[in-house]
Amino acid sequence: MIRTPESTIKQAILHPVEEIRTTALDYFSLSYTSDESLMPVVIQAVEQYGRDATFDLLRDAENLPQTEATVRWICDELAKDWHIEDVAIDNYCFALGLLLCKTRVDLLRPEMAELRSFPVELAERFQERIEMASWDWNTIWAALEYLGEEAHDQGKLFRKNLQLGERIVEALARRPERSDPVLRLVNRCYRGDEREPIQWLEPLLAELAGRMRIEAAIPTLVERLHEEDEPLNDACVAALTRIGGDRVVQAIAKHWPKGDDHFRHSAAEVLERIHTQFSVETCLEFIKSEGNEGKPWFPAVALLGNFVHEAVEPVRQMLKLNDVWLEFEDYKYRLVAISTIMGVRFPEYEQWYEDAREDYWGWGGPHDQSRVRESFDNDDDDLHALDDEDFDDEDFDDEDFDDQDFDDDDFDDDEEEGEFEDETSHDGALMFPIGTVALYGPDDRTTTKIAAGVILHKGAEPIMKRWVSTNILANTRVQEEMDSFFKQYGVRSVGMSEGNMGCPHEEGEDFPQGEDCPFCPWWKGKQGSNAAE
Fold first, then answer.
1. Which of 126, 222, 330, 333 is the most buried (most CB within 10 A)?
2. Cα angle: 102, vertex 105, 110; to 5 degrees
3. CA atoms within 13 A on the CB side of 316
4. Distance between CA 266 and CA 277 in Å, rounded?
5. Dihedral of alpha carbons 520, 518, 132, 196, sign
6. Plot region of 430 (φ>0 → left; ψ -120 to 50 → alpha; else → beta)
7. CB 80 within 8 A of CB 120
8. Are 331 and 319 a contacting pair, CB within 8 Å?
9. What predicted TM-score, i.e. pTM, was given to this entire model?
10. Phi and psi angles of residue 175, each rounded to the nearest 5 degrees, phi first
């Protein structure tokens, strides 16, 4: 078995053909490499082939680790007075700005966003990343919870939400010692007709497990590859790639025999990005196990992505059988690009290379670049939205929210009579419908969650609504929504807790019954069934 040396693949980043340059770079960037010697090669390619012809290369370089020297080069470029009326040059500056927005925070300075050619559209997210570096765990976690609540309320996840979520996850991942509660949430099964707020966070939790390199999460992440939930699936592929190693390959091999094409496609993506000898050998075994009547397409493509010479022939044969399928054209050109880098030739190579060149490697011909900044952060471009057929009225009735989103302890009789202070009654008796407001937070001083309830009559189950935010008591939007919630049910009197009643997490849901909350150590022995007598 012949594997192409990584030094050869790295050198191909300087190849005269752009498609071959990006193919070589993808080998490293898609595997989340830690090799700091790669970005200088990308910079060399930019300077060698021109700023107006390297936008795609810079976009593919986002996952590469930066150094003080490479950041200095990026800043020097953005400090220049470029002719941004030229779309290609404008996109070049935007790609550089995006690179800084992915660079590890300790290499960044706030004033970098003030450089002459730094895209103004990126300034807020750039500064937010730097600011988040100083947040404590509880503040960042509250921001993540609020994001899930917002997605649940909107019934969709906008691109800007996901981008904010990625920054939150990046900040949380800097605390690997807090991996235990993350693992518990990743391992939970959020299934049913309803879509709970936490379910919107599943892709971000999977990404967080990957960034924290939580090996104990591997079985769950691989299991989730069977599910046809695209955002979650993509997040699990990325997480498994980040964790990497032969334990991931072994877990995939265990599921492979019973996996359908959907699972195998996703699993093969992971195998393609884990560049170990065992990963390569496993792909070869999968190809052999399919036999002459099988479909070794997915493991063959994964093997090709590892730049193994033995992958060329099986991919070539399958392309010949399916060459009338337009969907396979990209794979044909990918085979040509990788074969060019490896120095491998096959009977159709010259013709297929010419086809790729004439077809502009799948672009179909010369095309004008669109201006990236014009379509950046378009709120209408939601990544996932629920259609009417995804749920009906029964999915979101009062009982569902009472049972699944809240503990009975939130509003029990003792709390109504003893811990709430009536704000509106004239004679000391609460008047129905009654509104209740309970505060929660990671300690007794910081409030991050408000749970509001409406009790229509004596003995009635409360109608619940809750909000989560980092500075929730000063959040005017929350105040307006709570006021509207109470007015909707004609609330006549309101009782509110004097302070935080406990932490914002649920016993038996977010952590085991009878144990202390692992997220909020301040409440140890002070709340729930584990409270000290």
1. 222
2. 100
3. 17
4. 20
5. negative
6. beta
7. no
8. yes
9. 0.73
10. -120, 65
